[in-house]
Every structure is written in C-alpha cells, then in structure tokens.
Please model this.
Amino acid sequence: MTPDPFHSLDGTLDQVWQRLARGVADRRAAARHPTLATVGPDGPDLRTVVLRAARRSDAQLEVHTDLRSAKVLHIGREPRIAMHVWDAKADCQIRINALASCLSGEDGRGRFAQVPEPARRVYAGFPPPGKVLAVPEEHGETEDPADHFCVLVLDVVRIETLHLGPDRHRRAVFTAAGGWSGSWIAP
Amino acid sequence: MTPDPFHSLDGTLDQVWQRLARGVADRRAAARHPTLATVGPDGPDLRTVVLRAARRSDAQLEVHTDLRSAKVLHIGREPRIAMHVWDAKADCQIRINALASCLSGEDGRGRFAQVPEPARRVYAGFPPPGKVLAVPEEHGETEDPADHFCVLVLDVVRIETLHLGPDRHRRAVFTAAGGWSGSWIAP
Model:
C-alpha cells in the first residue's frame, strides 16, 4: 500500500498542485471551478470562476474574466484575493491567498487567441456585466469580445489545506515567504 | 409543464430560500456546505462551513464555529461577510452578502444544547485552531467545548443569483434595502 500523501507536508503540497493542474485539464475535476473572493467597497464578494492555468514553478494561477466585471474593479483597489476548492474525491479543502493582476488589451492578446470561439462570446455581452435590465432578454452579445477579455494572473502567496482523514483532520499551511516548506497547524 | 421558477424574480428568490432551507435539513444538499468569506488583516479568507439555520422571515442564516478561529477575529473588525453556493442540480449560483455577529457564552447556550455530542468535540480542540504543531498528532480534544462554541448569525443584506438556463443565463439581485423585490442584471 502506498503511503497517504496527506500524511506528509511535501505530499500534501504535491497533491494541491496536482489537483489544480487537473482542474485546468479536466472539466469534471473539482479544481475546475474554484470560488474566488475579492474585496470591494461593500465588503467581500464571491463567485465561481474557471481555472485556466496552474504553474507550480512560478506559483501562478490564471482565470479569464470580463474587463468590465466588478472583480476587476475590486482588484484595482485591493489586489489581495482568495480562492477556495473543496475536492471531495481527495477529502481536501484547498485555501489560497494570492495577489491578482490584470492582463488585457495587447498584453492579453496571446491568451485570447487561444480561447475557442464559443467561449469568446462570454466577453461580447452588452449591456456590461451587472447593469440593470428590464428583462433578461435585453442582454445580447454585440460587442467585440477582444475589447473586454482580461486574464487575471494570481501570484500565490499562501496555501492552506485541510484534509479530512479517517483517523484525524490534518491542516497545513505553506507560504511563498517560507519557501513553501510548510507547517502543520491545529485544525 | 410548470413554468421554470428561474424565469421570474419572485420564483428565483423562492428557489434561493428553498435551497438554503434544504441545506440546513439535508446533508447532501448543495447549500449544506457554503463557502464563507471574511476579510482579515491579510485580505480575504475563504473556508467551507456548515449551514445550520436559514430563516427567510428575518433574512438570517447561521453557522457554528470555534470562538478561537480566525473568522471570529476577522468578523470582530469587519462584520461584512460573503457566502457562496453553487447548486449544480438547480444550475444556480447563489451569492450572499451579510453582516455577521457572534453569539457565544450565555447567548449561545441554547444553540449549544441542541448540538449532538459527536459534533461538540469540534470545539474541544487544543492547541487552538491555527496554532503551529510539530506533528498533527499533537492536537487533541481536551478542552470544554461549551467554552469555545460560537454561533455566527448572518443578517443577509443582498442576494445575487446566476441561473445557467438552456436558452440564456439569468442574473438577478435582491437587497434588504430594496424590500427584496429584485432586479435582473446583465450576466
């Protein structure tokens, strides 16, 4: 029997990045749809996002969004964000803190070229996201999506895990400042 | 065929509260395990919580936690929180903003009396949540759980929904200040 990877700090961090990578590659993986928190003028705000990239080597994640969305506005004032994944198959909660920046226009063009045509329509909406509509049918896809496409680049600074094991819960924290070596903490 | 409840604002808000109520009653319902955002000194923080009460009449939700947890500390400084549920069966994302307050000690005693014995052990942990451990086995359940039990009462001020329909996405917002009448907004 192979040892449980969540019984070691290194094994736990390996699992986090493997599961994030799986989220990018596999539509059905838990990490495909993390919950993203930003802080706006009225407090925190949460929404589901689609994970588009996960690079362990530089501790970066990517999400695509509409440049006109509230989260882009929030990040302009408060770049500190949080991300959350509950991976039921691994019995593991992944909590991430990161600094967000926004690539758009020329800087985002390379990424936009890789977005398949049907997915591009998301960025063509008018009126802009969050505007009041008399009826839902008032909303159409009439804009140039390239104008509104934005890549949120998330520089991960902290990862916390909670693994619900059959014997006990194991909680661990890993930070960029600590070289990702990790510590166990009380659940 | 009954009309799709998500095609009307009233129907949408009914669905939200029905699904929150189901989360309280049914361990397998999506709203059983919302994601809760608080804002701390290092930015937003997210974690899974268990929904313990949902009262539409006074727009309140409840969650139980450990009085020593970071979220209680966060709420003491910034009571504005957010909560998120993705209900796959309804194809609906529920986003909630609320003001949190904490009932503990005498005030929380009535609720604690209703917590079954096995669930009480969660509040008996030592060292306190978040303290560094040399090994996970250093953590035990040696404290009096009544001392650390806390009810987070969430006064809901805003509910936003995104329903992914076969024809189009419908996004709606409802506020306490607006008497919960609701508006459609651009997705």
About this structure: DSSP finds five helices and twelve strands in chain A. The CA atoms of residues 127 and 186 of chain A lie 48 Å apart.
